[in-house]
Design a protein that fits this description.
The complex is a heterodimer of chains A (about 150) and B (about 90).
Chain A (H helix, E strand, L loop, with lengths): L9 H8 L5 E4 L3 H16 L6 E7 L1 H5 L6 H8 L2 E7 L3 H8 L10 H13 L14 H11 L1
Chain B lengths: L1 H8 L4 H18 L3 H18 L8 E7 L2 E7 L5 H6 L1
Antiparallel strand pairs in B: 1-2
């Protein structure tokens, strides 16, 4: 697995030269999605077909308040297949401070999302996480009000 | 809570703005056409069509649309009817 440098310069083109599968990683922000679309465009022109989208640092509360693009919005805009959505998680920073990868943290939601993505990459069908699950009574009341 | 008041007064939430802005910018990124180039293309198209059939340039709508990862140039060009032409 090659982690391509950010951007669409030489490093990116070198990284994809030998790739047989490409994951496009982006955040649900305007400038990030725009860059991801350019990357997908270059992949198409290089005939690296069917890249998969990994949507990183999604904040479920902001999505619910309609202040962040949802996974469905980003999928609609980029029109490629989805391999996983990783929720925003402070544990990622704490883990990197300690040198303990969040993917090995059994209780972390982000860790669970990364483990699920790894399974999908190995070809195992894995259901997508319900990112609304941990939002407690207030969140549920708010959603009722929205219906 | 702000979401509640925004819905009450019909203010647009920021995610909706983000999606609209992206829809606009991605079409132009993917086609590599500036709005000025698109206008020039429209003018040329209208002139060419008007040489062959009678159209109302004011009623013509030409726009770039998104369909998955494909873009298409969609034109809606109402023709002036023969009867109206004779009357006019």
């Amino acid at each position: 697995m090659i982690d391509s440098p950010a951007g669409i310069e030489r490093g990116f083109r070198n990284a994809i030269a030998a790739a047989d599968k490409v994951l496009v990683i982006t955040n649900p922000e305007v400038s990030a999605v725009r860059d991801a679309d350019r990357v997908v465009g270059i992949l198409e022109s290089e005939e690296k077909y069917s890249p998969a989208l990994l949507l990183n640092r999604l904040n479920p509360v902001m999505v619910k308040n309609h202040d962040m693009l949802s996974a469905a919005d980003v999928l609609d805009l980029l029109a490629i297949q989805l391999i996983g959505v990783v929720p925003e998680d402070e544990g990622v920073i704490v883990g990197s401070n300690r040198g303990a990868p969040v993917a090995l943290e059994p209780k972390s939601r982000a860790g669970q999302a990364f483990r699920n993505i790894a399974k999908r990459l190995q070809g195992q069908e894995t259901p997508f996480l319900d990112l609304d699950k941990q939002d407690g009574l207030w969140g549920r009341l708010q959603r009722l009000g929205r219906k | 809570m702000s979401g509640f008041f925004d819905r009450l007064f019909g203010t647009k939430r920021s995610a909706e703005s983000a999606k609209e802005r992206l829809q606009l910018v991605l079409v132009h990124d993917r086609t590599d056409l500036t709005p000025a180039q698109l206008d020039a293309l429209k003018d040329d198209l209208l002139k060419t069509i008007a040489r062959h059939i009678d159209i109302d340039p004011q009623a013509v709508q030409i726009a770039l649309e998104r369909d998955g990862r494909e873009q298409r140039l969609v034109a809606d060009i109402p023709l002036r009817s023969v009867a109206r032409r004779r009357a006019g």
